[in-house]
Amino acid sequence: MSKSKLEYIWLDGYTPTANMRSKTKIEENFSGKLEDCPIWSFDGSSTKQAEGGSSDCLLKPVAIYPDPARENGYLVMSEVLTADGEPHPSNSRATIDGDENDDFWFGFEQEYFIMDTHTQLPLGFPVGGYPGPQGLYYCSVGGRNTHGREIVERHADYCIEAGLNFEGINQEVACGQWEFQIFAKGAKNAGDQVWIARYLLDRLTEEYGYYIEYHPKPVKGDWNGSGMHANFSNSVLRTCGSKEVYEKICEAFKPVTKEHIEVYGEFNDQRLTGLHETQSIHEFSYGVSDRGASIRIPIMTVEKGWKGWLEDRRPASNADPYKVAARIIKTVKSVDVGALV
Question: Which of 18, 117, 151, 184 could form a disulfide with 11 if both were Cys (CB 3.0 to 4.6 A apart)?
Answer without folding.
Answer: 18
